[in-house]
Every structure is written in structure tokens, then in C-alpha cells.
Specification:
- 24% of the residues lie in helices and 34% in strands.
- The protein is α+β, with helices and mostly antiparallel strands.
- The protein has a 7-stranded mixed β-sheet with strand order 1-2-3-7-6-5-4. Strands 11-10-9-8-12 form a 5-stranded antiparallel β-sheet, with no helix packed on it.
- The longest helix has 20 residues, at 157-176.
- It is globular, with a radius of gyration of 18 Å.
- Helix 2 (71-86) crosses helix 5 (180-189).
Length: 241
């Protein structure tokens, strides 16, 4: 594993897309004190105060992961971050597809970009932001929270990075060994709103439903209170908090 550190950069994801010196290294990590153009899903911007949080991108070269099964890589990173954060507090869950929530507040998000060669994933870049020591959030994000706000004191970001990377390597080894059901089961076991009926919103409006399953493709399947199954890809449904 190779770690590259920046005081300031536009985007660690963009950097790794153009970085080829580490092509012979299985895992390359880019960590920044501040990103001027840190990205979230879609057109979203990830707010992060300079030197307060963990903002990084991780590029891996998966072994034998088919393009149709690439969501297992998203599960691995979500579990790696969730497990690391669970060492600081209870109440951490994975909100589909790969945000980490503490109770009903967002503490981490990940943007995933893959390249495909033939039928397999060639590279996967995880762009992850974790709110660590920031206590004031100025954007219009509705529900941010940091570790410091939860535990009441500052947390060592370097130690958190080590925890996340150890976990990610552990979960990727499980994928490479062929035991991918273990990853899916672990993901479902810590899924936000895995129990009960809750409110959601799609293009047709707001409805109430329970989570039925998350498919290997990454699609979320809900069962609405009228008994109907509803299947969604990323950004096709919103959780009403």
C-alpha cells in the first residue's frame, strides 16, 4: 500500500484517476488536509473544514470482480468505515448505498468510480469523507455530525485512517476468497432502517415502506405498505428523515 499526502488539492479522486506511478501497487491512498473541489454523489459537494476531517481516496485493483458484481466493493468500503467508526461509538449504520450514519445523522459518505476491462473491474476508486473533528457545518446539508460531536473530544485522524484501511483490506480478502455472501450478510446486518416501516420519496411522491433486500447489483428493494415491491437504483429514491 502506498500513501500520498497533500496539504491542499482539488480532488483526491481526480488525482488518482491521473496517477500512474503506482500502477504496480495494489492499493494507493491519497489523503488531503483540504480539498477545494471535494465531491459527493452526483453534483453534491462534500463540506470539510481544513485539517479537521479525514478526506481521502483509495484506489484498488480488484482481483476477479465482475463488472456486474462491482457493488460488493462498495459494500466493503462501507463496512470498513462503519466498523472503524463503531470503535468510537455505538449507533453506526450503513445507509444505502454507502453513507455511514450515527443514529439519524450523516458522519461519512463515499463516491465510488470504477474502470472496466472486459467483463471485470480493472480499478476502483473510493473517495471517502469522514467528519472527525469539525463541529460547525455551514452548508445546507440537513444532518451532519462528527466523531468529536459524538464523543466530546478530538480524535486522531491518522489512527482512524489506519483502522479504515485495515478493515478494507480484511473485507477485500474475503471478496477475493470467493466468500462474498459474508460481505452481503454483514452489510445487511448493519443497514440503516433494516427494521420497520419508514418514509421514502421517489419521482411519484412520498410513501411508506420497509427494506426488503439489497440486490447483488446494488439495487434497493422496498416493500410499500400496499404490499408492492419497489426496486431502485442509486439516486432514484430518497430517505425521508
Amino acid at each position: 500500500m502506498k500513501i500520498i499526502r497533500f496539504d491542499e488539492i482539488d480532488s483526491t479522486n481526480s488525482f488518482l484517476h491521473g496517477y500512474h506511478e503506482g500502477d504496480d501497487v495494489e492499493t494507493v491512498v491519497a489523503v488531503a488536509e483540504y480539498q477545494t473541489a471535494g465531491r459527493g454523489q452526483g453534483t453534491n459537494h462534500w463540506e470539510s473544514e481544513r485539517g479537521k476531517n479525514l478526506t481521502m481516496s483509495v484506489r484498488v485493483a480488484p482481483k476477479g470482480v465482475k463488472a456486474t458484481e462491482q457493488y460488493v466493493l462498495s459494500m466493503c468500503m462501507a463496512l470498513a468505515v462503519k466498523d472503524a467508526l463503531s470503535e468510537y461509538s455505538e449507533g453506526m449504520t450503513v445507509k444505502w448505498p454507502n453513507d455511514i450514519y450515527w443514529n439519524d445523522k450523516k458522519i461519512s459518505g463515499t463516491l465510488i468510480e470504477t474502470t472496466i476491462a472486459g467483463k471485470n473491474v480493472k480499478t476502483c476508486i473510493f473517495g471517502t469523507g469522514i467528519n472527525v473533528n469539525q463541529t460547525e457545518f455551514l452548508s445546507d446539508a440537513p444532518n451532519p455530525v462528527s466523531i468529536k460531536q459524538i464523543v466530546g473530544h478530538e480524535v486522531d485522524r491518522e489512527e482512524l485512517l489506519k483502522k479504515v484501511m485495515r478493515n478494507l483490506e480484511k473485507y477485500l480478502k474475503i471478496v477475493y476468497s470467493g466468500e462474498r455472501k459474508k460481505i452481503h450478510d454483514a452489510y445487511m446486518n448493519c443497514l440503516y432502517r433494516k427494521e420497520g416501516v419508514h418514509k421514502y420519496r421517489d419521482n411519484n411522491g412520498t410513501f411508506e415502506a420497509s427494506i426488503e433486500r439489497v440486490e447483488d447489483s446494488g439495487h434497493l428493494v422496498l416493500r410499500s405498505t400496499d404490499g408492492r415491491e419497489r426496486r431502485y437504483g442509486f439516486k432514484e429514491v430518497a430517505f425521508v428523515l
